[in-house]
Write a structure and sequence with these properties.
eight-stranded mixed β-sheet, 3 domains, alpha/beta, 18 strands, FAD/NAD(P)-binding domain
């Protein structure tokens, strides 16, 4: 069996993996980035919306190549759709700003990694981790274009997404409860009526525990999708029925044609107790770094990938790749960056999932009438207090 040696092995060439490989290679480390599919970025399993404000942090320059549409903001509709909350792109969360072509975006990030010096293997899934006699991970067995080889590395970065096997193999507990998994289906539709300047979100019983989205990719084209909490589903195929029923009730969507269909799942949980072990770090979706409210994870993946690359450099320079070292230099920084917002949004997601359609209608009605200078629980409750004071008691626990 052939054996290859690297400083860093990154498993998974999504945004988190490519970012980790890019910044680790820039530090002068010998980096291998592997992707199980023959085509990086395909098949697309994403709503394809991203915000803009985080791009400079990971040195990503917006490119016409992967931007399908730029939006002004978001509109959030309650069940009765009589009014809506309008938010600017800067305030609307992780999925509003650019609507991208995700396959092209992922390839662009992989190309940035390659240009920094990272080696890339496609059609090369990791099939197991290699451990030493003490049980520490020291590499991975990889099926490189059909041939099984050994890749030895000082640091392994798991960037293999929602269904991460690296975390499981390394015995890092990232299990997710049904209530924190959202089952999704999305159509790419053409010939529909829409406002291409806004991404639209629909709350309530049309999507229990989640929401319906319409992300415009052009003047008559959009990603129209739905996420429903797994614990709200009773039968197979129910998610599709929810989406089909929603489209049936909206003539501007019903008149269109479906040219693509994707399915998948998203975790909307709190951060796991740990995202590292000896020699191993998890980034992005594999570390459950997804916004529990929006389900958006691209920005968090890229940022955590960069932090992991910096930790890998410090680890290799110091000759210390212990769990304790990686916890201090990677996990601690990730928690400082994401954990507080993640926890707050998880509580908000839990609260939203329990609200009746009637309450959601009143909530959106009250908030839609005020100019929101900032988005906070307090500013939202102040707006509700003025119009529906009886509702405020329902939200006191969020304070």
């Amino acid at each position: 069996m052939k054996t290859y040696n690297y400083d860093v092995l990154v498993i998974g060439a999504g945004p988190g993996g490519s970012s980790a490989a890019r910044f680790a290679a820039r530090k002068g480390l010998k980096v291998l980035l592997i992707e199980k599919r023959p085509d990086i970025g395909s098949p697309v399993r994403c709503g394809e919306g991203i915000s803009k404000n985080w791009l400079p942090e990971v040195e990503i320059e917006p490119q016409k190549l992967w931007i399908a549409n730029e939006v002004e903001g978001a509109r959030i509709y309650p069940p009765d759709e009589k009014t809506f909350i309008k938010l600017s792109a800067a305030k609307a969360g992780n999925e509003v700003g650019y609507i991208i072509e995700r396959d092209k975006f992922d390839k662009y990030l992989a190309a940035l990694a390659a240009r920094e010096g990272a080696e890339i293997w496609v059609k090369s899934p990791a099939i197991s981790l290699i451990k030493d006699k003490d049980g520490k991970v020291i590499g991975a067995k990889v099926r490189k274009m059909g041939e099984i080889v050994e890749v030895m590395a000082k640091i392994i970065i798991g960037a293999d997404g929602f269904e991460s096997q690296v975390g499981r193999w390394a015995k890092i507990n990232t299990m997710v409860k049904d209530r924190d998994i959202v089952s999704c289906i999305e159509y790419r539709m053409v010939g529909i009526d829409l406002n291409k300047d806004f991404t639209d979100f629909y709350l309530g019983s049309c999507a229990p525990g989640g929401y319906v989205w319409v992300f415009p990719k052009g003047k008559d084209e959009a990603n129209v999708g739905i996420g429903v909490a797994l614990n709200k589903l009773k039968n197979p195929g129910e998610v599709k029925k929810y989406l089909d029923d929603f489209i049936e009730k909206h003539p501007g969507l019903k008149k269109g044609q479906i040219i693509n269909l994707i399915t998948g799942a998203v975790s909307t949980c709190q951060m796991p107790q740990s995202i590292v072990t000896d020699n191993v770090m998890l980034v992005g979706d594999s570390a459950r770094l997804i916004d529990p409210i929006t389900g958006g994870g691209i920005s968090n993946a890229c940022i955590s990938g960069k932090i992991a690359a910096e930790a890998a450099y410090e680890s290799i320079k110091s000759g210390n790749s212990s769990k304790e070292f990686l916890k201090e230099h990677y996990e601690k920084k990730v928690r400082e960056k994401f954990e507080r917002k993640n926890l707050r949004n998880w509580f908000a997601k839990e609260k939203l999932s329990m609200l009746s359609d009637e309450t959601l209608n009143k909530l959106v009605d009250a908030i839609s009438e005020v100019e929101l200078t900032s988005i906070s629980v307090k500013s939202l409750l102040d707006a509700v207090q003025k119009k529906y004071p009886e509702l405020v008691k329902e939200f006191e626990d969020l304070l």
